[in-house]
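User: Now give one protein:

AI:
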Amino acid sequence: MTEQPVDDRVIDLDVRSLTAAAAGDLEEAQEYADKAADSGSLLGIALSTYLRTSHRHDVYDRPAAFEAFIAGGGNVDLYRRTSAVLASAYPGAAALLDVGCGNGHALVPALQMAGDAAPSAVELVEPGADLLEHCVGAVQAAGLPLKITGWQMGLTDFLKTAPPAQRWHLAQSTFALQSIEPTERLVALRALAPRVDRLLVVDFDVADERPGSKKHLRDLATRYERGLSEYDDTTDLVAQGFLMPVLLGQLSADEARTNWEQPAEKWREEFQAAGFQDVEVRPLADYWSAPAFALTATGATMTG
């Protein structure tokens, strides 16, 4: 779709709303969101509604909103490319670990694309009960000849639970590791590195800007305005159940933070610090939020 320019005057109102929210002044944030909404801002409408009516909840407590989000807009092409790059990594990987599988929107098409090269055993790690159930059901419904095991927990708890000697030929994660707090994430990745032969991660190359700075808030407002414009009849569901909690979670102390995004180069450095070797990053797709990349690496014990 053709990207439409966003009116700077409207963005200014959105930025004022986000600035107030970041400072904890939700009344002022509401006031500017209302003004932005009256000026035709999709983000203004979403913020106004959310600030007025929301009840605090985990962003993945409403799986229908997340599923509507990934099934529409720029996610259609993004997930097509993601599934293709996953499938390309499956030859030689009999045992697969998927960290943060969600509802299987990327995994299931990848397994189908891989055909006979698909893994024979897949373990799914996903803290969201409904998402995990959906993913397991989707794999089973596809009639794929593989053993599937689902674990309703995060990566940290899973690695504490899994047998110490257990290894995987390939570990993959799509847009999920950003949801783990960085200190915890590094500890988990260090525990994972010696237990996998190869790693494939897909995530976003997000600009390194000071959180809450004027530039950061303007960038967020512009990107979310464009992102919301990609949806039609599901805009309200996507905004209220997913995008607004994610957005405000980055800014407001009153919201639980759910994402810790960063530039691709910092991702590379983090995996190297965790002990992964041969870390390579390459562009995958353009996207309204930030460009997506695919990162590959070998496990800590792999040699030559």
Summary: The beta strands are 95-99, 121-125, 147-151, 168-174, 196-204, 277-285, 292-298. The mean pLDDT is 92. Residues 8-22 form the longest helix (15 residues). Residues 77-206+261-298 form a domain with the Rossmann fold fold (CATH 3.40.50.150).
